Amino acid sequence: MEEESSQVADHAKTIHDMEEAAEEDRDPESKPLNQPLLKRSRTLSSNPLAMVGAKVSYIESLDYEINENDLFKHDWRSRSKVQVLQYIFLKWTLAFLVGLLTGLIATLINLAIENIAGYKLLAVIHLIQKKRYLTGFIFFTAANFLLALFAAVLCVCFAPTAAGPGIPEIKAYLNGVDTPNMFGAATLIVKIFGSIGAVAAGLDLGKEGPLVHIGACIASLLGQGGPSNYRLKWRWLRYFNNDRDRRDLITCGASSGVCAAFRAPVGGVLFSLEEVATWWRSALLWRTFFSTAVVAVVLRAFIQICSSGECGLFGTGGLIMFDVSNVTITYCVMDIIPVVVIGIIGGVLGSLYNYLLHKVLRLYSFINQKGRLHKLLLSVTVAVFTSACQYGLPFLAKCQPCGSSLSETECPTNGSSGNFKQFNCPAGYYNDLATLLLATNDDAVRHIFSTNTPTEYQIPSLLIFFALYCILGLFTFGIAVPSGLFLPIILMGSGYGRLLGIAMGSYTNIDQGLFAVLGAASLMAGSMRMTVSLCVIFLELTNNLLLLPITMIVLLIAKTVGDSFNPSIYEIILHLKGLPFLDANPEPFMRNLTVGELADVKPQVVTLCGVEKVARIVDVLKNTTHNGFPIVDGGVVAQVGVGNGATELHGIILRAHLLQVLKKKWFLSEKRRTEEWEVREKFTSIELAEREGKFEEVAVAREEMEMYVDLHPLTNTTPFTVMESMSVAKAMVLFRQMGLRHLLIVPKFAGGGVPPVVGILTRQDLRPYNILTAFPHLARPKEGEKEN
Amino acid sequence: MEEESSQVADHAKTIHDMEEAAEEDRDPESKPLNQPLLKRSRTLSSNPLAMVGAKVSYIESLDYEINENDLFKHDWRSRSKVQVLQYIFLKWTLAFLVGLLTGLIATLINLAIENIAGYKLLAVIHLIQKKRYLTGFIFFTAANFLLALFAAVLCVCFAPTAAGPGIPEIKAYLNGVDTPNMFGAATLIVKIFGSIGAVAAGLDLGKEGPLVHIGACIASLLGQGGPSNYRLKWRWLRYFNNDRDRRDLITCGASSGVCAAFRAPVGGVLFSLEEVATWWRSALLWRTFFSTAVVAVVLRAFIQICSSGECGLFGTGGLIMFDVSNVTITYCVMDIIPVVVIGIIGGVLGSLYNYLLHKVLRLYSFINQKGRLHKLLLSVTVAVFTSACQYGLPFLAKCQPCGSSLSETECPTNGSSGNFKQFNCPAGYYNDLATLLLATNDDAVRHIFSTNTPTEYQIPSLLIFFALYCILGLFTFGIAVPSGLFLPIILMGSGYGRLLGIAMGSYTNIDQGLFAVLGAASLMAGSMRMTVSLCVIFLELTNNLLLLPITMIVLLIAKTVGDSFNPSIYEIILHLKGLPFLDANPEPFMRNLTVGELADVKPQVVTLCGVEKVARIVDVLKNTTHNGFPIVDGGVVAQVGVGNGATELHGIILRAHLLQVLKKKWFLSEKRRTEEWEVREKFTSIELAEREGKFEEVAVAREEMEMYVDLHPLTNTTPFTVMESMSVAKAMVLFRQMGLRHLLIVPKFAGGGVPPVVGILTRQDLRPYNILTAFPHLARPKEGEKEN
Fold first, then answer.
1. Is residue B545 one of the residues assigned to a domain?
2. DSSP secondary-structure letter at A554?
3. Were both Cys, which of A177, A437, B325, B657 would link to B543 (CB 3.0–4.6 Å)?
4. What region holds the CBS domain (chains A, B) (predicted)?
5. What is the pLDDT of residues A712-736, one digit of tens each?
């Protein structure tokens, strides 16, 4: 092991010629400057490509580490009390704005969907009442076709990243992976209108996931001061010009989105904490909570305004989705059995759903790659199929007589909402399947959750409902429109929950509506594998605290059962998209591997001198794709404790900063160290925070090539380091916990001609898949367990 | 800066003579082996003493880092699938048991308190009805005196660590500070019975804090297999023989305690997350949630059993403390004003309370240090004073006529509970102050929270109530009995909340009872500075989701206001006790200091050779008090990339393991490396996990002194390291996030005779106070802000 890892140090004298491993190997054809002296059979691969939205893009890592270079240090020292207060004030103002805007946009979306879908359904019901079934079908299908086409065209043509829920990408961003165009203005707008179109088209997808993404987009745009091309260069905002603060703001945005989707402020905070965020601090908990509180207040005000009937068809629909607070819940010890059964079924079905969805998504990505037309066709095909089923299947159900306890206005109804739809039935009768299918998704959930209606739904109708939504749930998610996963899963889960409730019959006192709620919760836990946050979301949704203990048991069982089969749906999507997400727990085999061994199978590290020739910098930037270069000063003059000729690891410099140097032509005619004022005259920390520089934009004259640059002031002098004997497991935990982009490997030897840095680790190097490719003997399939 | 930090490396040749800085300088008189060559004016102080309970004790750090030595690595490699499943099964079983036992003990405590206090109050009321006021007073005071004496004697004589709430010590434990005797069997038993006595004595303290500590004690005892002297040496438990798993279990225990105290399972989890825990992982969220779910089920079963009246005077008392779910809450936009006012008052009063409590606690610690008798006297004095006030003050209140809407059984009442106490009033009248004072604390809270009773309490009565509980709240907390902080703060807060409700009069529609709830919430936020967890606890307590938005606003305002004055009450207590708690956010001045400069003002690091002489080990253990020693191998034979004569930093060895080596006399007659089987024959990982070894117990014969020990197999080969140029801020974040005990400082120079390790950092070195003592110029009072 030691021999192996120290091979890296073989040619310490040629530090200048060494080269670093590719973090993001943009140009796989580019040959390394020097071939490694030792031919290696195994190399650590890294793939910078990932699916962003439905497109394959290059991805980059984020700089969550504080870049402590001289400019930062100066800024830090000179920061006045007023500036600190400005920063704090701005932080809270932005959190407030994120909440406010998310709340307002959620309001807009709800209003639009309820009105569009409502008028559409009213027209269809009107036609059905006149027995013009075929006209009704054509109208219904055409309306849905157009709405779906609208959403799909927006998505395909203007912002492909707006397709899908966006939650996996937010998860990846908060883990340190920047997916391009994910949080831009175009994505935001397409997401808003695409979501309205897709949900109003009656597709089996929710507005919940998109709302989370919308919250994150708002946060990102606010944090950077507007859309990328028209950014506000407001002085105050410069404190936010770093990935750390933006990360916190996006966490606030994601929480606000969940809160807006479910009116669950605490649930929103916990969702971010449990599912989305990688790093979490107490201070962030508080700020996130503030954002969601603002959203809750906005939504409350909106409901109050709408309760007077000024919002068109909105009425009481939309937001308070599944209020079951009016139910008196009684349950006894024996009720634990149906609860456990629901949990187990939820876990099994949830993991089965994950498995099948994975297959469908792979098929879809194959279709989607064929071009825009294929994407559009797929989307509208699903929309037409959905419409046909929703319209046609209710004809299969038998008409049920209205109960004697129901008034005439209650049953049958012909409005856009109402629990007993007449559809094709004679007066005094209702069609239970039409109640479930010919309604907006929110209404469908409300209908199937309805309590104290033990005889409303027939078993055949529920079976058709469940089967239909299983099929739709699998085939709708992957199409090119903004789509959330929450609602399809809730619909599916409530279907089998209610079926189970009927099957239990007189055995239990639990209401069938609660069975539906528990079924939905179990399937969500079985598929998404959240516990505390789901529990709180359901608590806030159902507004009934007495449900809490049984909900907890259902969630725990469903998650446990699901975890024993496959990972959560978000992890599956992350993997499918190829986003280099770092898991919280290292794989067991990582304990048996040192970072030295890992560095050994990588191309050697490319270092720069503290005062470097321009030609060398240009050369390195052109021929490598690395984003960080260690700065090594050779031949240190003897000091106390340090002999002559020692080399010094000064720190690490980012590619972006090297590009800034070249762009600004901050060149020296002789090889010397600069003073602090010189660099402060030329660079500001705002400029250094920019990441957008491209090497192609730089032009260096031939005579400038022979000049020098003092890289010391721009170097991060406090990079995190590990010894080469460090185990990969520990290094990975360090990397993830500290939110690093580069981790330097220092030798465990002192003296004897060892270079001060023997390697560099990046996110890609720590991914289990990449490691196992280089070290196939480590893969022991029998030990699939992770530590935790 | 560079010159300064490299002075450390001055005498690289004398590595063996170097010595390490004291982590826990047990014997401040012990002289360092070699005086540092450079006389330093400033040194980094470290104080290993802290108040544990009411006693000053030596404290130690915990080993949360995974000690990757050869034995661990072998264990890891040879771990079978079955063992992994055993471990997972055990983890969940223990989490279940923690929940179950905490729930049962909470039941026991509630039953005992309600019955003892209930019969006591019934007897007093009986005497008052007969107008035998003096006898009533004597009986009341004597009963309370005896109960308080019982609690105090238990605490003072058997387990001084059981005094107080215990939450700060749990916080410190989870931060990595081991406070001796804090989680033992004696503490647990004294805490249970002391809490029963103290609360039944009517003292102004709650059972909530003690329940949290009880949960943690149960978890700790289960995790180590029983009390320290009678530990189960069950094979399965050996996987738990490490500080990491015990930490997780104690987090579960603390959550269970909060859940048992407030019947708030989600609130319990969030309390641990927000207030108690330093490290948190998604997996832990789930396990904690499981524990609290078990507690919730146990409590529910218990309430169901007791609702049939088989629990003596328990009845409906005790657990469901402040259910206000039957209130229909209406509030409008204008209600924001009283809500903001409550928040501001809560913040101001909360920070004032923190300030005054700090002063009182300092006074008390002065009294308590004088001996056991003083402690006992202080406790019973407070008890007698409390009794006198509770009995005497109601005589000051005017009798109020019962409203016409109340039935005769409702008003006046003479039972142990009931909202309209007759006390000294004629028939048809009630004494409002007696209702509040002559009841158990839980009942008092229920009475003052009571809704739809706008005329029940008079302003003078509420003023007396508020003033009394302000005084009692300050002077009761520090006495030597188990005491929680939640209830005193709730009582105080509800007092001014209700007063404010009366003052608002017809301006607002919010019920006075809700004002009392909001007042309690605001004072808790103002003093304890929690937000999300308090919000959820209040949500679960009051069982009314409509309160959520205004509770959130109140909490946010109160916390913001409070934070601008002083730190939270737990931080104040932590500071007062001298526990070396590491904050989440580094102080700003830490950015301007490197770890090299820090290492420079410490005594030099003591290193050992890989194969070391016994005499040297004995010498080092005797003359230093450090708990970790870097292992440096000199004169490495030339390898690929490493020249002759290089030194190698092999890792770090713990004092406990050196003691094991000496105890087991694992000595070699010649200087050689051992094989892996040799060490596995002698040591098991269970033995290495023990921490209890003392140097005094070791006897080494004179001839053994010249023998050798191969320390390599016992060395943690993967210690975390930082470069000497690393800033202290980053190093501190690393230290805290990774849960370290030692952090090695490596040189930034390679070659030139630099030693492979130039210093070592411990918890004490990273405390702001210690740093500022050594570098007074860094303290800039104008910048009190922390980063976050």
1. yes
2. H
3. B325
4. 715-780
5. 988 999 999 999 999 999 999 999 9
Q: Each residue of A557-579: pLDDT tens digit?
A: 999 999 999 999 999 998 888 88
Smallest Cβ distance to B750: which of A79, A265, A647? A647
DSSP string covering B413-458, please? Answer: B-SSS-SSB-TTSPTTEEEHHHHHHSS-HHHHHHHHH-SS-TTSS-
Question: What residue of A is the nearest CA neighbor of B781?
Answer: A81
d(CA A19, CA A35) in angstroms, rounded, equals: 9
CA distance B139 to B438: 13
CATH number, domain containing residue A293 = 1.10.3080.10
The pLDDT of residue A327 is 61
Distance in angstroms (rounded) separating the CA atoms of residues A670 and A657? 21
What is the average pLDDT score of chain A? 82
Q: Would you say residue B77 has pLDDT above 90?
A: no
Q: Is the CB of A746 less than 8 angstroms away from the CB of B721?
A: yes
Q: Residue B610 and residue B605: Cα distance in Å, rounded?
A: 16
Chain B CB contacts of A592 under 8 Å are 73, 76-77
Choose, out of A282, A323, A644, the residue to mutate when testing the contact with B (most B CBs < 10 Å).
A282
Q: Is A725 inside any structural domain?
A: yes
Model ipTM value: 0.85
**Same domain? B338 vs B282:** no
Q: Are residues A478 and A500 in the same domain?
A: yes
Note whether A294 and A228 are same-domain residues: yes
Of B9, B640, B755, the CB nearest to A7: B640
Q: How many Å apart are CA A84 and CA A98, to the nearest integer?
A: 21
Contact A286 B531 (CB under 8 A): yes
Q: Work out the end-to-end distance of chain B between its first and last CA atoms, rounded to an integer number of angstroms.
A: 27
CATH number at residue A726: 3.10.580.10
Chain A residue numbers touching B727 (CB-CB < 8 A): 68, 718
Q: Which residues 6+ apart lie within 8 Å of B407 measured at CB? A: none
Spell out which residues of chain A touch residue B174, defining contact as CB-CB under 8 Å: none
Q: Which two tokens stand for residue B157?
A: 């004589």
Tokens of B232: 């189960």
The rounded distance, in Å, linking the Cα atoms of A259 and A270 is 10
* Element spanning B51, H or E: strand B49-52
Residues B467 and B449 in one domain: yes
The distance of B69 to chain A (nearest Cα, Å) reads 11
Give residue for tokens 């409203």. B403
HEC string for A683-703: CCHHHHHCCCCCHHHCCCCCH
Answer yes or no: do A280 and B280 touch at CB < 8 A: yes
Domain residues for the domain of B621 are 2-47+585-778
pLDDT attached to residue B235? 64
Nearest chain B alpha carbon to A38: B640
What's the gap in Å between the CA of A428 and the closest CA on chain B?
A: 36
3-state helix, strand, coil in chain A (%, to 5): 60, 10, 35
Q: Which residue of B has its CA nearest to A66?
A: B730
C-alpha Rg value of chain B to the nearest Å: 30
pLDDT in tens, A112-147: 998 899 899 989 988 988 888 999 999 999 999 999
| Burial status of residue B43 (CB atoms within 10 A of its CB: 0-12, 13-18, 19 or more) | middle
Instruction: Give the residue from chain A lying closest to B589, CA to CA.
Output: A77
Which of B391, B355, B382 shows the shortest CA–CA distance to B527? B355
What are the structure tokens assigned to B334, written together? 């204008």
DSSP B582: P
pLDDT tier at A264, thresholds 50, 70, 90: confident
- What are the angstrom distances between the C-alpha of A351 and each of A357, A466, A492? 10, 17, 13
Which residue bears the tokens 């205004």?
Answer: B550
